[in-house]
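Below is a filled-in request sheet from our internal design queue. Each sheet records the structural input a requester submitted and the sequence that came back. We keep these sheets so that new team members can see what a complete request looks like end to end.

REQUESTER: design group, bay 2
PRIORITY: normal
MODE: inverse folding
CHAIN LENGTH: 331
BACKBONE (tokenized):
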């Protein structure tokens, strides 16, 4: 999947829409493209739309629909019902192909890893330490707070490291020598070695602060796996469109054909007028490129940015959504 993600990043989508000028290369993003990757769609380029970003996607090359008795597709292989599925996300465990019911597809079912830090409050003056290959913290670092000279203990313990609680995975050591004074800077915020780094501008990336940290795509950094290809196989098969929250990684909901959340345009193109690559479709709704479809909530925008699917983004409030819609920019 790492190769698939790396390749897909090269075909990142521009979500800065202009009806007059091609989209410049620096505006290419991949934030709202997880469903295209999950469907194994291929990018289509058009210099009149963008100088280097995909103008649309061809999804006819995606995997065929799997019958209920055939199993669960994952990373190019179909796993039989009841078979273990080797999901690569370290925060998913015990994954297997669950039988489909009531006409639904078989589904990859996983147990979500529950980290000790979710249940054990962090001790005073301590912080968790992380490894980029593991889901949970791998230990903690505790320091003695500085005291006035006349109150300082005769034997200060300084910094000490405590291993992760018994029963947690600790084969891999923290990514950093925690006693080093080195640190990382990301988006004007300082991190200590061993800290986990999250990004606002690259919300699908996460890193662990190490001495060789460079940026969101450097060493000890990973792309967040939303699991769209195995968690939402039914929605993908049914032709649904994901809803993303503004500038956040991973979808928060879905809009499916015949949903009341999206309305047809007053002057909607006919099926014969709609052309592949220049229109988006959701069921019977057809939207030309650069146009938006009416929605049931003023904080939800659904635009035809890169066909064949609408790009739907939810905003914190209606004012932000209206501003984004006015400028035709999905942020």
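RETURNED SEQUENCE:
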């Amino acid at each position: 999947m790492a190769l698939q993600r790396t390749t897909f990043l090269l075909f990142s989508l521009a979500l800065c829409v202009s009806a007059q000028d091609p989209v410049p290369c620096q505006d290419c993003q991949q934030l709202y493209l997880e469903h295209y990757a999950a469907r194994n769609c291929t990018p289509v380029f058009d210099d009149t739309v963008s100088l280097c970003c995909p103008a649309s996607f061809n999804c006819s090359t995606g995997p065929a629909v799997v019958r209920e008795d055939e199993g669960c597709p994952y990373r190019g292989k179909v796993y039989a019902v009841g078979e273990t599925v080797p999901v690569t996300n370290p925060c998913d465990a015990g994954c297997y192909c669950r039988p489909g019911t009531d006409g639904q597809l078989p589904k990859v079912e996983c147990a979500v890893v529950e980290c000790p830090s979710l249940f054990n409050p962090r001790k005073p003056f301590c912080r968790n330490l992380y490894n980029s290959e593991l889901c949970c913290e791998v230990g903690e670092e505790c320091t003695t707070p500085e005291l006035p000279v006349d109150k300082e203990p005769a034997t200060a313990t300084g910094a000490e490291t405590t291993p992760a609680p018994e029963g947690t995975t600790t084969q891999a050591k923290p990514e950093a020598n925690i006693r080093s004074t080195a640190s990382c800077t990301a988006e004007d915020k300082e991190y200590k070695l061993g800290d986990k780094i999250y990004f606002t501008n690259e919300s699908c990336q996460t890193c662990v602060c190490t001495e060789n940290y460079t940026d969101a795509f450097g060493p000890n950094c990973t792309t967040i796996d939303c699991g769209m290809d195995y968690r939402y196989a039914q929605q993908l098969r049914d032709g649904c469109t994901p809803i993303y929250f503004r500038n956040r990684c991973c979808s928060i909901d879905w809009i499916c054909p015949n949903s009341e959340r999206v309305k047809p345009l007053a002057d909607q193109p006919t099926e014969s007028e709609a052309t592949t690559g220049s229109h988006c479709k959701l069921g019977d709704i057809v939207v030309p490129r650069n146009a938006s479809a009416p929605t049931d909530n003023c904080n939800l925008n659904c635009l035809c940015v890169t066909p064949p699917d609408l790009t739907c983004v939810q905003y914190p409030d209606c004012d932000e959504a209206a501003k984004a819609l006015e400028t035709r920019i999905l942020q």
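SHEET NOTES:
- The two ends are 26 Å apart (CA to CA).
- Residues 318-327 form the longest helix (10 residues).
FILED BY: M.R.
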